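Task: encode each sequence below as structure tokens.

Item 1
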Amino acid sequence: MHTPTPVIFIHGLWLHATSWTPWSDLFREAGYAPAAPGWPGDADTVEETRAHPERLADHGIDDVVQHYAGIIEQLDTKPILIGHSFGGMIAQKLLGLDLAAAAIAIDAAQIKGVLPLPLSALRATLPVFKNPGNLHKAVSLTEEQFRFAFGNAVSEAESQELYERWTIPAPGKPLFEAAAANFNPHSPAKVDTANESRGPLLLIMGGKDHTVPESVTRATLKQYRHASTVNDILEFPDRAHSLTIDSGWRDVADACLAWLQEQSL
């Protein structure tokens, strides 16, 4: 009997792991074995996670990578990783470490070596950077900040609904680590982009994304230019950072399934 390939969904900052539920259902129907474990400190529900922001505080990129590596170690076979935002960076790191069969990074946070820092990205992350003390804290977004950072390509009503349903506080540490990546030779945001034995990678970008603008994703692809492995890129021109959770999520999920089929995964 065929054992279904595991798929691990990795959320980014400010969204709870349960926001992947529609994706998990779809991938299960498509014959995969999906799971969407939270970051260290995440509780099982949005409400409980909001109630205990201190549990999320001070977890950096390496903590999160080790957390998911530990989950992967318990599997019988290498999983496919699908990550959004910082989850996309984590997925690339795990792929570079040969812990995944393939990775799909959707609007992924910038890895070390990526130089563009667009103004909209600075504005989207300002709630964290305006206070250096946030390095060791978990920070919540206001509805207005969420609208700019995530919901700018959907209606105000939909943005508000997504905010109320899925948002949780996020540790500030990964953002500070990513911001300092190009000045730190041992940055946790460094990805082994030259690994020739790793599985295929798909980068997906939203053309209207304020938090991870297209220029960041294109610059990320360039980091892989010397690798002979599969490195593909796909754009959704009218979508922003909420593309995995808003009313158009299915288009993105179907594109991921189609790409995995092309890779015979």
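Item 2
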Amino acid sequence: MDTNSERRVAVIIEDDADIRHLLETVLTQAGFEVIATGNGLDGVQAVRAYDPMVTTLDVSMPGIDGFEAAKRIRAFSNTYLVMLTARDEEIDTLQGLEAGADDYLTKPFRPRELRARVEAMMRRPRQVLAVDGSGPVAPAAQAPAPTAPFAPAAAPAPAYGAPTAYEPAPVQAPATVAAEPAAVVEPAGPKNYDREDGWIEHNALFVNSEMRLAEKDGKAIELTRSEFDLLNALMESQRRVRSKADLALLLRGESYVTAHFVSEADKRAIEVHMANLRRKLADSITTPRWIETVRGVGYRLAASEAD
């Protein structure tokens, strides 16, 4: 039975017509039904209407830029989000990942690499923590099927490839951003953190890979997919060092073998993810309680406080 959740839908948000056509070709060949848009406002509306599995998002666009579009999309959607940009500075990577991107590619990119990264992301669970930290939530429950065809925010544009003149649309925050946060319902009774129930504990930090939950001091920690996967990998490895290349391949769903290429940008992305993870855990770099940097190699769990 064909349902909206089973369709391989991809949304492209890209103002450059040539790159937009290239992305359409790559994703269509990968088996996706593609919806292409030329600006951030139309792209956000398309994601809301079609609930895509994958969304590619250009950073530099007229109107709202890719960072703002990513934040708006993350307010209601768990689509796999790949940001594409001509800028490769670390601060831009940090902004993209903090805005909710799952991966970050610089232009010019290799179509084969983009396709491989998209397929690798889709091998990872799409379920993540709810925004209010109350538990896992499936994206299909958050984005209902469209009741009307997608209509762009501005006047309809001519066929792709024809010259167009951009007329900026008014920037309005979606209702989901301004809405009051949902109340967190505390579970009844003490939680069972038994290892047999799938929980791993280290220095009072608890992780459950099956439920994709991370908790500290009895409170859920809101993590992105990549941050959770990295934390879970370190928790499972304990004091064994995981290199940046190893962790980059883990996020791509590949095993650590020398045949796979890991770029410096991939390694920088791991550094950014780890910095974000430390910030959310309130962990110290100089006296870490959970994540310890092994200089020149990678990362491992800090020593147990019980030792």
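Check on item 2: Confidence is low (pLDDT under 50) at residues 1-5, 127-190. DSSP finds nine helices and 14 strands in the chain.
End of task.
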